[in-house]
Design a protein that fits this description.
With 142 residues, the chain is an alpha+beta fold. It has two domains: 89 residues, Glutaredoxin (3-Layer(aba) Sandwich); 33 residues. Helices cover 42% and strands 13% of the residues. The protein is built from four helices and four strands, in the order βααβββαα. Strands 2-1-3-4 form a four-stranded mixed sheet, covered by helices on one side. Strand 3 and strand 4 form a beta hairpin. Helix 2 packs across helix 3. The structure holds FE2/S2 (inorganic) cluster (FES). FE2/S2 (inorganic) cluster binds next to loops.
Length: 142
């Protein structure tokens, strides 16, 4: 038995969903609403990187049911919490029915979004290189 009954993963760190809506506001409102409903011990709300459903965002997924929601905006959060997380009823109007796997459709984004994506990938590589260098330093000190 896991610690939490449900996990909600919200794509806040992927390169596209943050241009489809205010993913941080969705995350903050989801956490607040789950707390207000007394579900903090049962439902874990997590920020997530890209969920490979880009272009349909903002995306979130609820496990263990594996129910995907697309085009979610902050104003939709209370409905998802009250209907799905509290009462166990899927919010069909936001449900994302897609075949398993990668369902990226990103051709409609303007070039500025691609530039953002490229910059984010560069920063991620720099972060990883810095992490590796720090790990090497820590090993040398032991
Ligand atoms: S950027 Fe959100 S699913 Fe890819």
């Amino acid at each position: 038995m896991s610690q939490f009954k449900k996990h909600v993963f919200i794509c806040t760190q992927g390169p596209y969903c943050c241009f489809d809506g205010d993913t941080e506001a969705i995350f903050e409102r989801m956490k607040r609403q789950v707390g207000a409903c007394g579900l903090n011990e049962e439902v874990r709300i997590n920020r997530a990187g890209c969920l490979n459903q880009c272009g349909h965002g903002p995306m979130l997924v609820v496990y263990p049911e594996a129910i995907w929601y697309s085009g979610v905006q902050a104003d939709d959060v209370d409905e998802i919490v009250n209907e799905h997380l509290v009462d166990g009823r899927v919010v069909e109007r936001l449900c994302f029915h897609a075949p398993p796997g990668n369902n990226k459709h990103v051709d409609h984004y303007p070039p500025e979004v691609q530039a953002f994506k490229d910059a984010a990938e560069r920063l991620q590589k720099e972060r990883e290189a810095l992490r590796q260098a720090t790990l090497r330093l820590l090993k040398e000190r032991r």
